[in-house]
Amino acid sequence: MRGSGSLNHNRRSFTAENVDPERSSLNVVYRDEPIQKVYHELFDEAVNRYNAKQKRKDRCITDYYEHLRTGKQEKLFHELIVQIGNKDDMGVLTENGALAKELLDEYMQGFQERNPTLRVFGAFLHMDEATP
Question: For the chain, what is the domain count?
Answer without folding.
Answer: 1
